[in-house]
């Protein structure tokens, strides 16, 4: 491997040949809509379904034929996906621009086999932190850990942003059925003071525990929110209370100490854990407090099961690889620009936001590992909403708009909140949407429907074009038996590895995020002018004009 592990030369030629073969195949694949494919292959739904434990992936409602899949597997092999995967699991520094390994898989290595980074096994440290987290979570949950005035903790506030917020917030919500009673959870991320102000309203400082979660412990938003929370607490209970009400999750022990948090109350993780891959680490402390150490371990077990599958299964049967390659087909061959995450489970309502960061921060890149421009589109624009809410908001575009929006429909077969007919109605909608997207409604069918409803003549002609659905719109279906901690672990690891495979195919480093830096730097330069009236002449005119107006309006 050359620069950043990129082989160049021969690999490039083989890869380009694989892309060219796919592009040549496109016309043939486009010629037969999915409707026709299902008609001629009665086994299609089963042929394009993979099952792993209590999870099923059905990718039959995509514009692919067996030949398409074969070409996609060729592409993955030409891109060296398997070699990159093995290097990731082996702890190599595949995040070359930050000179780091990407070893979130070690955090859930339930087999406890040694995982070496620079000749050093990281598993003892991983297990030690998990043990400390477990001890702390048990103490808080059982009421053994008391606040400074001797009261039990009733509210946990996680202060963090990006990966230090989205993972725990998403998982605490997803696992609400397993949550400890008498302990509430809130998540503060935005630097907009409204969020911390509203979060603190109604909380009792004597019964509140803050988790300050930040890999770097320098992130401006988190540090400011933590300082505000600290001020709120100490105003009521004094400085001595900090030790009983603040814990930190970080890789930066010095900054934690400087902030005034006792290092004994710090839960460590390591630079080889990327922020958006960190919910399995101490960043998951809020999850552990919510569901307890045993359930947290089940979540790790689920992720580990997916890791083993990803590591060992041939690409043809490999769920993350298949999901990734379908995405590559949709984005790079069919030209889709976005990707919708549509969980039919209210517990997964934060999954779209979580996957937005996971996908777009990982693969939203336009240079390859070797610094050369990428040749094709990379991460899609990820968005989503839980079903059925989205159906009444943006699905119109997905069904009849001018763009192709590939969708992932996700649902559990069993509800954890069985309530009358609700789950049956939810599942009927879940199944109907992907079928409708695939089948569409032809002009002939639309006409028959209108005639049946008594619409005729000019009225029928006027309405007809609006009633036609083009169909042939791609989607994947991910079915879980139930949204258990184990299933959630599998699901998140599935997407992590999907993103990894796509990054490998596109040749980008999925583990850095330089694109977030420029805005941060400029905000630092602009802040003095916003905050303390510093001179404007050093600022760009585009910013100056807006700032003048901000000054006028904030004085009024
Ligand atoms: O600015 C982007 C980012 O670095 C993310 O990658 C990360 O998840 C988030 O900020 C928070 O970073 P930290 O955990 O260091 O506060």
Question: How does the overall form come out from the CA principal axes?
Answer: globular
State the separation between the terminal residues, measured CA to CA.
Answer: 62 Å
Number of helices: 23
Biggest sheet architecture: 6 strands, mixed
Helix content: 40-55%
Instruction: Report the strand count.
Output: 13
Low-pLDDT residue spans: 1-6
- List of distinct ligands in this structure: 6-O-phosphono-beta-D-fructofuranose
Set out the fold topology:
Layout: H1 10-31, H2 34-40, H3 44-47, E1 49-52, E2 55-58, H4 66-78, H5 81-89, H6 104-107, E3 116-117, E4 120-121, H7 123-142, E5 155-159, H8 166-174, E6 184-188, H9 193-200, E7 208-213, H10 220-237, H11 242-245, E8 246-250, H12 253-259, E9 266-268, H13 285-291, H14 293-312, H15 319-333, E10 338-343, H16 351-363, E11 381-384, H17 395-400, E12 407-412, H18 422-439, H19 443-452, H20 457-467, E13 475-480, H21 485-506, H22 517-531, H23 541-555
Parallel strand pairs: 5-6, 5-7, 7-8, 8-9, 10-11, 10-12, 12-13
Antiparallel strand pairs: 1-2, 2-13, 3-4
Helix pairs in contact: 1-4, 4-15, 7-13, 8-13, 13-14, 14-21, 15-21, 16-21, 19-20
What are the defining features of this structure?
556 residues; alpha/beta; six-stranded mixed sheet; five-stranded parallel sheet; 13 strands; 50% helix; globular; disordered N terminus; binds 6-O-phosphono-beta-D-fructofuranose
């Amino acid at each position: 491997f050359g620069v950043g592990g990129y082989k160049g030369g021969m690999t490039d030629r083989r890869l380009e040949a694989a892309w060219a073969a796919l592009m040549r195949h496109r016309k043939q694949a486009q010629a037969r809509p999915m409707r026709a494919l299902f008609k001629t292959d009665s086994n299609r739904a089963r042929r394009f379904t993979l099952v792993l434990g209590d999870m099923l992936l059905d990718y039959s409602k995509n514009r692919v034929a067996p030949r398409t899949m074969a070409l996609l597997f060729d592409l993955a092999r030409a891109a060296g996906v398997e070699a990159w995967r093995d290097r990731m699991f082996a702890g190599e520094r595949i995040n070359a621009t930050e000179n780091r390994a990407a070893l979130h898989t070690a955090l859930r290595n339930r087999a406890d086999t040694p995982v070496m980074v620079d000749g050093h096994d990281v598993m003892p440290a991983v297990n030690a932190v998990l043990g400390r987290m477990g001890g702390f979570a048990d103490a808080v949950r059982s009421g053994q850990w008391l606040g400074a005035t001797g009261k039990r903790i009733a509210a946990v506030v996680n202060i963090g942003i990006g990966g230090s917020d989205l993972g725990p917030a998403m998982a605490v919500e997803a696992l609400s059925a397993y949550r400890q009673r008498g302990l509430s959870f809130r998540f503060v991320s935005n630097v907009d003071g409204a969020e911390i102000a509203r979060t603190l309203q109604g909380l009792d400082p004597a019964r509140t525990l803050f988790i300050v979660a930040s890999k770097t412990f320098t992130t401006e938003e988190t540090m400011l929110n933590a300082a505000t929370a600290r001020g709120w607490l100490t105003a009521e209970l004094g400085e001595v209370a900090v030790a009983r009400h603040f814990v930190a999750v970080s890789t930066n022990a010095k900054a934690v100490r400087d902030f005034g948090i006792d290092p004994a109350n710090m839960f460590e993780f390591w630079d080889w854990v990327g922020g958006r891959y960190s919910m399995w680490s101490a960043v998951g402390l809020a999850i552990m407090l919510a569901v307890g150490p045993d359930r947290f371990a089940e979540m790790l077990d689920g992720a580990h099961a997916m890791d083993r599958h990803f590591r060992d299964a041939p690409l043809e049967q490999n769920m993350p690889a298949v999901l990734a390659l379908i995405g590559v087909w949709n984005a790079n061959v069919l030209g889709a620009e976005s990707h919708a995450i549509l969980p039919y489970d209210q517990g997964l309502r934060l999954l779209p936001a979580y996957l937005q960061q996971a996908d777009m921060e990982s693969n939203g890149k336009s240079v390859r590992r070797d610094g050369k421009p990428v040749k094709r589109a990379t991460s899609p624009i990820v968005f989503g909403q839980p079903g059925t809410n989205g159906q009444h908001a943006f699905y119109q575009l997905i069904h009849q708009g001018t763009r192709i929006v590939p969708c992932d429909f996700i649902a559990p077969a069993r509800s954890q909140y069985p309530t009358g007919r609700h789950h049956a109605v939810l599942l009927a909608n879940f199944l109907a949407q992907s079928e409708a997207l695939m089948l569409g409604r032809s002009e002939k069918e639309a006409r028959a429907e209108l005639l049946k409803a008594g619409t005729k003549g000019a009225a029928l002609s006027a309405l007809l074009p609006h009633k036609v659905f083009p169909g042939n719109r791609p989607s994947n279906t991910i079915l879980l038996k139930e949204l258990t901690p184990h299933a959630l672990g599998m699901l998140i690891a599935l997407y992590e590895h999907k993103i990894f495979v796509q990054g490998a195919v596109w040749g980008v480093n999925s583990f850095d995020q330089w694109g977030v830096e420029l805005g941060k730097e400029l905000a630092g330069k602009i802040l003095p002018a916003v905050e303390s009236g510093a001179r404007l002449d050093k600022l760009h005119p585009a910013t100056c004009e807006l700032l003048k107006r901000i000054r006028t309006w904030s004085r009024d």
